[in-house]
Amino acid sequence: MSALVSVAERLRKMVPAISVGVLSADLMAVGRDIDLLEKAGVKILHFDVMDGCFCPMITAGPALIKAVKTSLLKDVHLMVQDPLEKLEPFAAAGADMITVHVEACRHPHRVLQAIGQLSVAGEKDRRPLRGIALNPGTTLHVIEPLIDEVDMIFLLAVNPGWGGQKFIGSTQRRMEQLLQMIRESNRDVLVGIDGGITKDNIDAVAKMGADIIVTGSAIFDGKNILQNVQHFNKVIANGQSL
Ligand code: DX5
Ligand code: ZN
Question: Is the pTM higher than 0.85?
């Protein structure tokens, strides 16, 4: 079995699942917080890479991704302008999932092809899953020419740049449209939603049909990671059964 199939299969067996934004952890004790996430049953770590050009903030790059030793899948969200020539170090650092913004790519189709050629952590047949992310203001029509090149599509429910922002309500309608597009395409594409997802709205978000629910500050809120993760997982499991 190729490593891509194993990552895709691992992910399919996990979803719907939360992908936890590691930059919302206590960065003075990030190893401790990741251990707590693992013990709580989290399966995916979300790394928000911001370059200060595509979005206002600057965060962290391949060094942080490489430094994190974990069995969890590394879900790398590149909020990076013109990512085409910047991809390889993220794969080498162990990114199992690499998502780029369609708004940041001069040639999004070529970027997705390039991601598909990368090796994860130097393992030649282990390919990262290819994701495309759309900001709240980007029409879903951009997906149409890319649908054959993606494994995942993420809808941002906030304008990228910070954790702790408010969920943008129109995301629900966009999620319905996106799921319809994927059904009509007959493609096996996983759907993610990212930003502004908290204990207050996870009940509604869990019913929107996303496979991957990205959440950061809500999981580390009140420093009770285990309780927060258990709450999110219970709601998602119930949401799925509806
Ligand atoms: C946009 C990022 C999100 C965000 C999530 O800024 O892509 O991952 O940080 O953080 P919360 O869950 O705190 O909104
Ligand atoms: Zn993100």
Answer: yes
